[in-house]
Amino acid sequence: MGFHIHTSCRGIAVALLFAGFSTAASSQTTQERLQRGEAVIKSLNKGAPQPALERMRQEFPFLAEATEAYALGDVWSRPNLDNRTRQLAAVAAFAAMGEPAFMKIHAGYALNIGVSEDELKEVIYMVTVPAGFPRAIAASQALSQLLAERRAALSQQPGGTPP
Amino acid sequence: MGFHIHTSCRGIAVALLFAGFSTAASSQTTQERLQRGEAVIKSLNKGAPQPALERMRQEFPFLAEATEAYALGDVWSRPNLDNRTRQLAAVAAFAAMGEPAFMKIHAGYALNIGVSEDELKEVIYMVTVPAGFPRAIAASQALSQLLAERRAALSQQPGGTPP
Amino acid sequence: MGFHIHTSCRGIAVALLFAGFSTAASSQTTQERLQRGEAVIKSLNKGAPQPALERMRQEFPFLAEATEAYALGDVWSRPNLDNRTRQLAAVAAFAAMGEPAFMKIHAGYALNIGVSEDELKEVIYMVTVPAGFPRAIAASQALSQLLAERRAALSQQPGGTPP
Amino acid sequence: MGFHIHTSCRGIAVALLFAGFSTAASSQTTQERLQRGEAVIKSLNKGAPQPALERMRQEFPFLAEATEAYALGDVWSRPNLDNRTRQLAAVAAFAAMGEPAFMKIHAGYALNIGVSEDELKEVIYMVTVPAGFPRAIAASQALSQLLAERRAALSQQPGGTPP
Amino acid sequence: MGFHIHTSCRGIAVALLFAGFSTAASSQTTQERLQRGEAVIKSLNKGAPQPALERMRQEFPFLAEATEAYALGDVWSRPNLDNRTRQLAAVAAFAAMGEPAFMKIHAGYALNIGVSEDELKEVIYMVTVPAGFPRAIAASQALSQLLAERRAALSQQPGGTPP
Amino acid sequence: MGFHIHTSCRGIAVALLFAGFSTAASSQTTQERLQRGEAVIKSLNKGAPQPALERMRQEFPFLAEATEAYALGDVWSRPNLDNRTRQLAAVAAFAAMGEPAFMKIHAGYALNIGVSEDELKEVIYMVTVPAGFPRAIAASQALSQLLAERRAALSQQPGGTPP
Fold it and tell me: Least CB-CB distance to C128: which of B56, B66, B98?
């Protein structure tokens, strides 16, 4: 797991250099913000593009751009908060709002950057307090599905063995 | 700030010993869960009881008990997730649901156990993505109010100087 | 308390006769639906008009009319569910949605038609399960406020003594 | 597209005459409100009844009646706001609340009365601001599905060619 | 139907005796709370365990425990409110929050303990007022599905005839 | 009122020229996006800065920047949807989500760019259908407050007479 953390940190560091993060924020171009967003998604998604984002580019190019430049490029690449905590806080917010499909995507990112299954479960359990049991239970079901998919994908790899 | 972390960790550790956390969970009495909840609230609230919880005891004793035994005693004292991350995830959930008053209470707890103002601001900024700008802006206003209150309280103490 | 139930039931019965409920529903005029809504509000509000509804008539006559003809005249006067259960279900829905001000109004109606304070408290406590603790706690605070106002009003009446 | 606008406007005009809209609102019968609602649904749905509404008539006749007489007959047929703006505002509200299935139905109505695909996409993009990215993205996916279905239906018509 | 009411009431009474409800609440162990929760679920679910709860025990044992000990054992077994009213209020809350799947589960419990189909329909119709038409319509569709499933299950029993 | 429309349209046109909207979107700098956002807020707010936004700049500079560069500069300045429709759709979304304070701000902008009071009232009335009566009533109260404040401000101007 430590390996993933290192990879993703390096990916972000490289991307930030490339996107010229050192220049004043206000002189950044949207092209640079998009590149930073692309680097963030790759660091969160094991180097692969995000399927739902790619589908959006066809019919909703400006919504896809906002997701990439703003949500990922501006928000998700902010300093001052480590990536694991931001991901767990996002998981809590998606679960509390009753958005289990989005929670599932971000729980996958969280696992990719080294968050443990147990930490995700604790955050989902905590959601019973601010948002009630249905939202927490729906989130737990989405996480169970995610974990099963990842185990299935792992066991299909040559030499892959489930943990 | 590190001082607060240590205090609170010690407080929880002492409480858990006292409440017999080492015994099997299912043999715990509600009395023990209430004691653990009380220890949690004191560790989060600088040793003081939580005013809203105390008011609830009069007319809603069972809701107050559920808050103390379940929300604080069962959920907030869980292992496997550090207290700072749980608090930041809770802040994200309260903000995303449009509950700025509850977010403010938990942001205060977060500050008490060593979360920085910057970390809280990053979580609130992140809330624009899952929940939109009104919820994030309302949370930012509640946090500004909290920070002002804490500065005012600090400057009224003998010898107190705002940071 | 039984006195209130009888009064309100009689009030509704008289109103329904007056509004011609026995005619086929589809031949009712909006005038008749408004009269039935007015009878419902009087039976729920101790014979007095509802202040917020009256204020709405000035600038939002059609929203006031929809509230009176549809919400009160059509929905609240339906048979097949006793009025106390409908009121408690409405209190649960308003509390779960995070609308404590509307919950407070309907909790007052519930008390007026004979629902006990304890029943209201149990419904609010139950709301922790579907909707989490902030919504239930906010509802408990609105109910405490309502009960205090009613006690204050009662003690100001000549010969009035709080229960 | 202009063709649809004209048809629908004429449909509403005829229906209003038929339903006696010129008489005082309070003397309207529910029968007249239902007829107006039926005319509205036909003008929005290319002359066809709304399948989900028809299914509701069996087990939930009073909910179906409320939808037809109140939501469609009272609200959707109001003057003072053109139908296209009301439809776009409704699309925004359904999307912001996390109800993509209902948004899809009303986006279809909007297209039927001459709203352009681009206008719908702009409203959905705007939803990121009040309600966050998940709600806007879910709405964009529902709209993409709707547009694909309409293209498929069009290409299956004899002589039909997708735009 | 009266049969179900009696069974469930007796089931709860027996369970409460068994769980030692007469002892002071604060000396209850979590084991006792879990047993009370199990008795509640059996009384609501015709003696059978709840499938979704059972699945949760594998990966989310503490969320399953909280559901059983807190939601069912503490909240659902409270005195002062009859079980039918609590169930109808819960149905209203789940429907108003946009959680039709959870509403369906609790509507099934409600039918099992003697609530009539008509009462459930009236509560769902009422939800249009606090929460709007999409939430009420989605709830009506979930209830229609539940009723169809129950009729299908009944007609497959030897000698079973739909009502 | 036509005067305001013209002014605001011209303001936006000038700003877009200034911000170089004609260049490819991806080469825009954040500085340019901020300038466009500033032009949008001035065109919506009668040339004055938005007080809540200004307060945010102190403690939440990046949230203020996101509001100005993304919400106003990117979303609110989009072509393909006229500004009045976007404003009315935003009013519907804020009202439906239970955010009357934000709805009030945007209703003020809508009035400033020529939307009529009647159009705002129709949108708020329509909100009963997707979101229920409490959200629509709360929005109607916020609008009434806004209209009273604007009348009071107008009558305090030298020579000012309320309409």
Answer: B66
What would the 3-class secondary structure string for chain A be?
CHHHHHHHHHHHHHHHHHHCCCCCHHHCEHHHHHHHHHHHHHHHCCCCCCHHHHHHHHHCHHHHHHHHHHHHHHHCCCCCCCHHHHHHHHHHHHHHCCCHHHHHHHHHHHHHCCCCHHHHHHHHHHCHHHHCHHHHHHHHHHHHHHHHHHHHHHHHCCCCCCC
The ipTM (two decimal places) reads 0.84
**Residues of chain E with C-beta less than 8 angstroms from the C-beta of B74:** 66, 70
Q: Which chains touch E (3 or more CB pairs under 8 A)?
A: A, B, C, D, F
| CB atoms C129 and E99 under 8 Å | no
User: How many Å separate Cα F54 from the centre of its chain?
Assistant: 15
Which residue numbers of C have CB closer than 8 Å to D's CBs? Answer: 25-31, 33-34, 62, 65-66, 70, 74-75, 78
Eight-state DSSP code of residue D98: T
CA-nearest residue of chain A to B126? A75
Centre a 10 Å sphere on the Cβ of residue E162 and count the other Cβ atoms it contains.
9
F21-F22-F25-F26 Cα dihedral, nearest 10 degrees? -120
CA distance C10 to F95: 38
C63, F136: Cβ pair inside 8 Å?
A: yes
CB-based contacts of A130: which residues, under 8 Å, 6+ apart?
A96, B90, B93, B94, B97, B99, B102, C132, C133, C134
Output the pLDDT for position E8.
41
Shortest Cα–Cα distance, F93 to chain A (Å): 16
Measure the CA–CA gap between F88 and F111, rounded to whole angstroms.
Answer: 10
> Chains contacting F with at least 3 CB pairs below 8 Å?
A, B, C, D, E
* Neighbour-count burial for A46-66, b at 16+ CB within 10 Å, e otherwise: eeeebeebeebeebbebbbbb
CB atoms within 10 A of CB B11: 17
Task: Tell me how far apart the alpha carbons of residues A47 and A101 are, in angstroms, rounded to a whole number.
Answer: 21
CA distance from start to end of chain B: 12
C53–chain E nearest CA distance, Å = 15
CB contact under 8 A, D34 and C25: no
- Rounded to whole angstroms, how far apart are CA atoms E77 and E35? 11
pLDDT category of residue C8 using cuts at 50, 70 and 90: very low
**Which pair of structure tokens corresponds to residue F107?**
């209703």
Task: Select the residue from C125, C126, C133 to test the A interface by mutation, using most A Cβ atoms within 10 A.
Answer: C133
The first and second tokens of residue E35, run together, are 């047993």
The pLDDT tens digits along chain D (163 residues) read 333 333 344 444 334 334 434 346 788 999 999 999 999 999 999 999 999 999 999 999 999 999 999 999 999 999 999 999 999 999 999 999 999 999 999 999 999 999 999 999 999 999 999 999 999 999 999 999 999 999 999 998 766 554 4
Find chains touching chain D: ≥3 CB pairs under 8 Å.
Answer: A, B, C, E, F
**Alpha-carbon torsion, ordered C49, C53, C56, C62, to 10 deg:** -110
Q: pLDDT of C40-53, one tens digit each? A: 999 999 999 999 99
Chain F residues within an 8 Å CB radius of A70:
66, 70, 74
Interface of D with C (CB under 8 A): 25-31, 33-34, 62, 65-66, 70, 74-75, 78
Q: What is the mean pLDDT of residues A62-85?
A: 96
CA–CA distance, B70 with A136 (Å, rounded to integer): 15
Matching residue, tokens 């990966």: E59
Phi, psi (degrees; rounded to nearest 5) at C46: 55, 35
